[in-house]
Amino acid sequence: MKEREKLRETLLKEIAKCRACRFCVDVCPTYQASTGVETLSAFGRLQAISYLLRRTLDFDDSLTYALYSCLQCRRCEIVCKSKGQNLEICELIALGRDLLSKPLAEGRSHERI
Amino acid sequence: MEMDLNMLRKDLAKISGEAHVFTDKPTSLVYAKDVMPYDVEAHNMPYAVVRPAGSQEISRILRYANEKKIPVHIHGSGTSLVGLARPKTNGIVLDMGRMTNIEVFPERGYFEVEPGLHVAKVRKVLAKHRAMLPAFPGSELVATIGGAVSVNTSAHAVDAALGKPGDYVLGLEVVLPTGEIIETGTQSTRRPAGIEVTKFLVGSEGLFCVLTKLRMRLIPQPEMENIVAYYRETDHILETVMEMYRQGIPAPLFFEFLDEKSARVGFDAVGLGLPEGAVAMMCIHSWSKAGCKEKAEKFLEFLQVGRPTQSKIVKDAQEWNKIWSSRAEAGNYIYRLGSTFGSEVTPRVDKLKEAFHDAKDAILNLKSYRNPDFYSFGHIGAPTIHAYAFIPSKDIPNEVKKAVVREVREVTEEINVKYGGCGGEWGLTAQRVSFLKKRYEAPYFQLLLNLKRALDPNNILNRGNLEGWV
After folding, report:
1. Which of B93, B130, B145, B285 lies 20 to 30 Å from B464 when distance is taken between CA atoms?
2. ipTM value of the model?
């Protein structure tokens, strides 16, 4: 349990480095495939994880469509490295999935997978 | 007001289709979160995000919003640095991201574009026609052309060389806040003289209308020559800019600079040797190669007035690429090291040096955070002073972030008031209303309120931006 709490802190600290420049948005293949829904971008996913971990947001049925739609292709990381804050975004999303999966599994049905 | 989200979702879906309406919380959050460093709060969260396909749908959404008295916040890509993009109240977010058509008409001398297309993509399309887009935001990979024209910002470009995007807008299609679709302007390259609506809708920051189509003149792509100049200290660059205007020297298209500390960060980031002082970089433009070469040589000659330690025309594209990128990279890397809090001071040009030092003093003497570092870089030739407070940590409480943002804004507002400027890049309403009130007399602000009321009687569009809400 303690380890998960530590992981949570690290994850929040890393995501807090995001400057919201949104350069990672346009390169995300799921953002492109959705004709531009920002929730389906690296930026969107990091925000969702951050607010969920801090419990500012309630868990929501449609969270999974944001978090689990990431293809882990790392295009966002290339942009973040050259123009942003050099975050390992895919790693952070994977960690976020890990930390949030349990409460999600206990939640209601997912309407938007 | 308790909002029936299911009802709202159904009603909006009737207009734009179910696939384009979102009422889930992650989506509401993402469209509420902007560059402002503090957290999104409950009152910022939209009830719904709707992604219309065109002006007819927007018209219906706005009529519906007026009927139900629900505020509508327009969203381009959310890259505003002064809080324009964050909704100030619960409502409907109108995401323009599906409206991305562009058509170029070389034989008519203009192009037409929908507002949601990203600036870099507009530039790419125009380049095929050897035309230049007169807007250069640092965020162009994702910022929308609609946003740039809504704020009427050419961003990095020097106004004296190019003007603002609005100077190239020939006409618009817009939806008024009450839902009427109107067309303004002309299809001629001859812009209307006299009273004409286009000019006050351009730059209206989403308060007066929703832009749905822009018609802009094609500007022939100029030839460019690039100059770099190294100085012992920033003051010499400031003196050069003042002298450029005093002598009536044609301004470069770009006239950027890095102060002593930023120069080291930026040059280090791109792998260039560290400069000893401040650095200025200029792009000279002209419509012929020979003309450009002559202009650059003359400008280099003029630059000696500021006693650079070294100055040259940079011919090697790779070398220039590094020098030029060091400016943008300085911003990225400084932020990587901690948190930056920016400002925009645009003084009367003969007061540039005094204003710069006032800004520096103001930043170094903040009360909300003791002893921050001072960095400055940017479009000094415009002239714009971006004075940054730097705090070497990202772990700052939300309330402190808010307080620093507010104080940096307030102290730099005073400098704009003192030296007769008002900002020329980031937009003037969202979170800057206190400045408008300080800078101008009460009747001026009342005029803005009257205009808003005349066009938007229910205060539907971007509610809170003209009221100074956060």
Report:
1. B145
2. 0.92
